[in-house]
Structures are given as structure tokens and as C-alpha cells.
Design brief:
CATH class of one domain: Mainly Beta
Structural class: mainly beta
Largest sheet: 5 strands, mixed
Distance between the termini: 93 Å
Number of helices: 1
Number of strands: 10
Strand content: 25-35%
């Protein structure tokens, strides 16, 4: 005996009811939705194509928090064309247009910051030591200047074993020297750890090849 099949109209009605129920459950939060992936970049303009590590909610990939609307900043470097492996000195100037001082302390910690080089492969020199200093970082009304030193070497290296694009093999007789960055064009940018400042306009930097020894 053949199984009795339901009326096609009834089957269609049941299917419509099932689909409507699924849509209603999803709309009411019955099933958690997967987070949609989004591209994370350091900033706009010249930095819009620079990749970076995944940022936490509300933070830029440079470790910057949303800043007070009265604050702006800029980077000045004493040199912009140096031999790779050299150190570049400069100044970070933070302008406070508000009527009072702004303390950037975050959960009892003084934010860390530095100026680092970046290119299409990512950021270099954005590593910070922990724990943080337990003191304020006050931005007074007007211009506030902070000295900065820009590294033109990798953050670390491996003495043995396979190297990586962001962690090359160490150099030197004892394999204890971090090699310089490859020659080329970079952008100097502000990076921080829990730092409530806006991304400063990037400064172009050109590194040349170190002389042969």
C-alpha cells in the first residue's frame, strides 16, 4: 500500500508557517547571530590601507580610545630620512582647546604612547611594557609637548628556528641583535595603550639601507 500523501495546498501552508516561525524566532533573538567581520584599519586617508591587529570595541587598532573633542595632536620628527636601524627623535604636541585640564588616566593607569612606523605589512614598535605607571597624564589647556623616539628596527627577532615576516632572524655574532627594518617608505603614527587621543596625521619616513660592514 502506498503511503497517503497530504494535500499539496496543506503542505504549502505548513511550510509557510514554519518559515514564518523561524523568522520570528530569529527577530526576537532566539538564535544568536554571528558577528559580522569588518575591516579594521588604523585611520583614514593615507592610513586607510594599512592593516593592523584586531581592535577591541570602541578602540582603534593603534590602541587609542575615543578622545575628548577639545583635543588634537600632531607629530614632529627631527629627521624623516635616516638609515634603517637608527633612532629618530621628535615631539608629540597635544593641543587642548578646552577650558580646563584633561586627565587621560585610564582605570588608575597612566596610558602609554609612542610614535611607531607602519607600512602595508602592519605596525612596528607598538609593544608596551606592563604594568602601567600609577600616575596621571594631564593635558593642560593650550599646547602640551612630549618627547618621542621612533625605532627603525623590528620589535623582536628569533635566534634560531623559522622566521616570520614580523619577526626575522636575529643578527650579530651571538644572534642577539634585532635587525633593522627593510629600506623603503613608511608612515610614523601615534600608537598607545588605553590612550584617549585622536590619531595624529601620519608623517612620511624614508629608510635607507645600512652601509655594508
Amino acid at each position: 500500500m502506498k503511503p497517503v500523501r497530504g494535500n499539496p495546498a496543506n503542505r504549502l501552508a505548513r511550510l509557510v508557517l514554519v518559515i514564518a516561525f523561524v523568522v520570528l524566532v530569529a527577530a526576537c533573538g532566539g538564535q544568536p547571530r554571528a558577528a559580522q567581520p569588518s575591516a579594521v584599519v588604523y585611520g583614514q586617508g593615507a592610513l586607510s590601507a594599512v592593516p593592523c591587529v584586531t581592535a577591541q570595541a570602541g578602540r582603534s587598532c593603534g590602541g587609542l580610545l575615543p578622545a575628548n573633542k577639545g583635543l588634537s595632536d600632531r607629530i614632529h620628527l627631527d629627521e624623516t630620512r635616516v638609515v634603517a636601524g637608527s633612532r629618530i627623535t621628535g615631539t608629540l604636541t597635544v593641543l587642548n582647546r578646552g577650558g580646563g585640564a584633561v586627565d587621560l588616566i585610564y582605570r588608575g593607569c597612566r596610558p602609554s604612547f609612542r610614535v611607531a612606523l607602519t607600512d602595508r605589512n602592519g605596525l612596528y614598535g607598538d609593544v608596551f611594557q606592563l604594568p602601567c605607571p600609577l600616575r596621571p597624564l594631564v593635558i593642560e589647556p593650550g599646547a602640551n609637548s612630549f618627547p618621542v623616539v621612533v625605532s627603525t628596527t623590528y620589535d623582536s627577532c628569533v635566534p634560531d628556528g623559522p622566521a616570520a615576516p614580523d619577526e626575522p632572524r636575529c643578527t650579530g655574532d651571538l644572534r642577539a641583535m634585532v635587525p633593522p627594518l627593510p629600506p623603503g617608505r613608511y608612515l610614523a603614527v601615534l600608537v598607545g595603550l588605553n590612550l584617549a587621543l585622536p590619531p595624529a596625521p601620519p608623517v612620511p619616513v624614508t629608510l635607507s639601507r645600512p652601509p655594508d660592514r
